[in-house]
Queue: 3 jobs
Job 1
Amino acid sequence: MSDKHYLSKLPTWCADDAARIAAEDGINLSLNHLDVLDAARHFYDQYGFSPSMRPLCKTVAEHCGLDKGRSIYLLQLFPGSPAKLVARYAGLPKPKNCI
C-alpha cells in the first residue's frame, strides 16, 4: 500500500473516490464502511489530525454505536490496518503513528 492515495486536501474527497480506492484493495464499501469514514472525517475536523486505532475506535463508538467501536469490528471492515485504510479511504492524511 503506497502513500499515493492519501489526500492532502480534505474538500477533494467524495464517496466515489473512496469506493474506487477501496476496490483497488479488494474491498467493496458498504454503508457501514461509509459510517466509519464519516466518523473519521469528523474526528479530523475536530482535532486536525487523522485518528490512530484507539481514537478511531472511540470516535466510531460515539458516532456509530458501542458495538461498532470495537477493534474486531473495524478489522472485519478494514482488514490489516484499519486506521491506515480508513484514513486513506476517507481522504485524510496518513495517521502519524502508523507505519
Job 2
Amino acid sequence: MDALLQFFAYEHLPPHLQSVSKPFGDMARKLAAELPANPESTTALRKLLEAKDCAVRAVLFKPLPSYVMD
C-alpha cells in the first residue's frame, strides 16, 4: 500500500489543484496507517486514487467548442 501513496503527493501542484488533491492525500495516508495490509485495502487506495484523479480533472475540464462535437 505504501507504494501507492506516492501518487497522492500534491505539494508539486499549483495551489488551485493542491486544494482539491490534499484531502485525498490526507485520507490515503490515514487509510494506509489504519487499515490492515490486504488486497481490499490496496483496492480502497486505488479507488481513492481514481476519485482524486477525477476531481483534479474536473477542475481542469474545459468544454469543447460546439463545432468539435458536430
Job 3
Amino acid sequence: MILGFGTNQYRLYEMGEVPSESNGKMIRSAMNPQVFLDLVRSTRS
C-alpha cells in the first residue's frame, strides 16, 4: 500500500470516518504529484 494504511483504515474513511492528524497530513502530502511519485517508487524498492 502506497500510503502505508491498512485495509481497515481505508474502510473507515469510506464510511465517513475522519482521518487522524498524521494520516491527514500524509493524504495531503500525497496530493503533490512529486511526493506521490516518490511514495510509489519507495514501495517498489
